[in-house]
Amino acid sequence: MQQRVYKTLEFNKIIQKLITFASSSLGKEKAEKLLPSLILSEVEERQLQTDEAVKVLRLKGNVPLGGIRNIRSSVKRAEIGGVLNIEELMDVASTVHAGRRLKKFIEAMVADEIEVPTLENYAEQIALCVNVEEEIERTIDDNGSIYDHASQTLRTIRSQKRSLEARIREKLDSLLRSKSKMLSDTLVTIRNDRYVVPVKQEYRQAFGGTVHDQSSSGATLFIEPQAVVAANNELQNAKMKEQREIDKILKELTILVAEHGEELVSNLAILAEIDFMFAKAKYSNHLKGSRPKLNEAGYIRLKKARHPLISTDEVVPLDVELGDDFTAIVITGPNTGGKTVTLKTIGLLTLMTQSGLQIPAEDESEMAIFQSVYADIGDEQSIEQSLSTFSSHMTNIIQILKDFDANSLILFDELGAGTDPQEGAALAISILDEVIGRGARTVATTHYSELKAYAYNRKKVINASVEFDVETLRPTYRLLVGVPGRSNAFEISKRLGLTDDIITRARGQISTEGNKVENMIASLEESQKRAEQEMNDAIQTREHSEKLKEELEQKYNELLAEKEEILEKAEQEARDAVEKAKSEADAIIKELKRVKKQHQAEIKEHELIEQKKKLEQVKPTLVDKKKKKVKVKKQVSFKPGDEVKVLTFGQKGHVVNKASETEYLVQIGIMKMTVKSDQLQLLEAKTPTPTRTVATIKGNESHVKTELDLRGERYEEALSRVDKYIDEALVAGYHQVSIIHGKGTGALRNGVQTFLKNHSSVSNFRYGAASEGGLGVTVVELK
């Protein structure tokens, strides 16, 4: 029964197409024997294998399957003591090499973390048999000849052969030159495996020797001269020795093959399975197939399914669902061909699924595993039994009704056709009630109008029709589920030219109820088309929205990545700036220590001021946000005289005054610098003292210097500047300042020192030390 179904649904054509995608005769054998499985776990395993092979083809493009030969009979003959010929041994080597190459290919994928569990398992079972391959390839060259070095004996024999052949040719060449008149051609040739020369018929007696052959005309005789008979005999003897040695070598290689017979046969079975896997995968790519979901609940949902044997340019995708809300579909309407294609598509895709083949449908399609598939399709009139079309179909249907069960898929084409319409419709309804009542999944086609109302009166049954375009008078082959088919006879007749009055009289012959039904069907068709169009529009809108969302998300992620990159770059620059600042600060401190050590005395004020300026310039400007997030602190106000810690340098000092909204002038020892408020930590608040309050020079943001340079000044202006400078130095809180007056005539120096003697804020003064400027500088100590 099932074989008949395979033929009816053209499953055999699927197999023939599959065979063409196998790379070896072994893979073709497995494809030829492929049958659907009835066990869910087995079907799942088959589908997983096919999907795994599809994945490999997608990632790698191709698989090294060449070189696999069917060596099963050769190995068996070797195991029972036969001797393999050169061609058979080369096939063995080729197959071993193919297995080794394929094993390496799969292991490389596993190393790349590509999940191929089935192929990985197969690769682990492939025996390398390296010594078999190496020995055969060491002995036999690519042209099928035994190498001279295959054995020492063979090398010696072939050396003797070449020597004998050279001697024979030398003698024959001499004869060709001396007796050229007797020869029809000056060529040495071979007859009966012996060297001969072509002699004219008339010189037969004069030339002498043994005749081995003659030309078709008889004008030329191929004669072995007496002079080379002995050498030819030796050559024949050498050739026999050579053949015996070759037979010996082939025997040794055959024994090696027999020793690895079990491994070779096992390899062969594995290679056949792998080749078959990829044959299914290649066929899937050809069909643009997908792996369906599987179930045992009798549920089918096909999305944009196509008949695999119809060209993609002609086939119309099919959407159908069966086995959930309804277990039977009744496709009504006129005979247009589309209904039969629908039946065959559902049946054929079921058989393909259960055979482990992917199906030409969109992803997320789902197929059931049935224990039996039955089909009564097409005109199968039995000429031998002289049965009518109706009888032939009824015989088939009766057999189906005997065999089917609830786990069956039944396909009826034009159920009840070929007999009286009223009786045929009644039979069709009764048969459908039987198969649906026993739980089988059923799809039936019919052109009987009585069955249009069938689905409305039965639970678990739904109507469907194949759309027909009245304008083109051709079916569109679109399946309209939920809408029964119309006859379209009047519309078609009108399009073909039948007059309106005839059509009007014909319509009058149909009952009012019949017209109402036709009008209702037309309305349903129009509503369904409109609903499908709206659904398609909604799907397109949703897809567009999803695409736009993806693009926006991608752009957002790109911006985030760019932001992170900019921040990281800024943080790196900040770290570099801090490192640079630290290096510069270390260099300044080192310089100060060097100066102090060098002079072993008090450091000059102008040197300290220069180093202080450098330190002020060394300020980090950025904070590493990645390692430490800076918390926003409440702004702290400082008063003149407050004792603070400068966090930047870890030094204590006191506030002189507020320099700006966010900065304070701070004195650290003898140095003053502007520091940001967030780099200050209050240690102890002090009441500001007027004598220690420091002010900056009005109109000048720079601090009061610890030295006053009077060189080049006139006497009166110089003394005025000294007076003003002493006041500013006191306000700045300096205890010691330097006045540079130069040596010159001494008039300015004497005037300055006379002024200092009488100044109430000067406690003492002296000439500068050699390192401080000597007699050109007066160092003043303030009270």
UniProtKB/TrEMBL annotation:
Matching Pfam families? MSSS, MutS_V, Smr
The residues that hold ATP are: 333-340
The EC class name is hydrolase
Recorded coiled-coil stretches: 514-612
How this chain assembles, per its entry, is: Homodimer. Binds to stalled ribosomes, contacting rRNA.
Under the heading NCBIfam families, the entry gives:
mutS2 (TIGR01069)
Q: What is its EC number?
A: 3.1.-.-, 3.6.4.-
The source organism is Lottiidibacillus patelloidae
Q: Please provide the record's keywords in A-Z order.
A: ATP-binding, Coiled coil, DNA-binding, Endonuclease, Hydrolase, Nuclease, Nucleotide-binding, RNA-binding, rRNA-binding
Q: Which family does it belong to?
A: Belongs to the DNA mismatch repair MutS family. MutS2 subfamily.
Read off the HAMAP family from this record.
MutS2
Q: Which Gene3D superfamilies match?
A: 3.30.1370.110, P-loop containing nucleotide triphosphate hydrolases
Recorded hits in InterPro entries, A to Z, give: DNA_mismatch_repair_MutS_C, DNA_mismatch_repair_MutS_core, DNA_mismatch_repair_MutS_sf, MSSS, MutS, MutS2, P-loop_NTPase, Smr_dom
- List residues of the Smr domain: 708-783
Upper lineage is: Bacteria, Bacillati, Bacillota, Bacilli, Bacillales
Q: Note whether DNA-binding occurs among the keywords.
A: yes
Q: What name is this protein filed under?
A: Endonuclease MutS2
Please give one Gene Ontology molecular function term for this protein: ATP binding
Query: Its GO biological process terms?
Result: mismatch repair; negative regulation of DNA recombination; rescue of stalled ribosome
Q: What does this protein do?
A: Endonuclease that is involved in the suppression of homologous recombination and thus may have a key role in the control of bacterial genetic diversity.
